[in-house]
Design brief:
- There is one protein chain.
- This protein is α+β, with helices and mostly antiparallel strands.
- 17% of the residues lie in helices and 48% in strands.
- The chain is built from two helices and eight strands.
- The strands form two sheets. A four-stranded antiparallel sheet has the order 2-1-8-5.
- The longest helix is centred in the N-terminal third of the chain and has 14 residues.
- The protein is globular.
- It starts with a helix and ends with a strand.
């Protein structure tokens, strides 16, 4: 969790000065079972324990993706970012993939 928070804080600070970037920011809440709360321009799949693949439907390039797990102490392993896709796996403190409620933020690279 510590690395996730540090990465989130550093990236959030870099977004702070750009109103245009803030307008294009996509955010969402994803339940531990891989379903999304609310609506938004993205889809989610949950192919295995702890792994979430978020496809951003309104992007044309490679996004900057930020995640914050809510719940038991977890860490991010295997972060993959491709065109329109943020692919992340969370593990518990024993290193075992674990499902978690999470918040994500994605913005296009400037």
């Amino acid at each position: 969790m510590k690395r996730s928070i540090i990465a989130f804080t550093a990236a959030a600070l870099s977004f702070a000065g750009s109103a245009a970037l803030a307008d294009s920011l996509t955010t969402g809440i994803i339940n531990a079972d891989g379903t999304k709360q609310g609506s938004g321009p993205f889809t989610v799949s949950h192919p295995s324990a702890g792994r979430y693949v978020i496809t951003l439907t309104s992007y044309t390039g490679v996004p900057v993706c930020l995640f914050n797990a809510i719940g038991p102490l977890t860490d991010v392993v295997g972060l993959g970012i491709n065109t329109k896709i943020c692919d992340v796996t969370f593990v518990n403190k024993k290193g075992k993939p674990t499902d978690t409620l999470l918040v994500f933020f994605a913005a296009p690279r400037s």
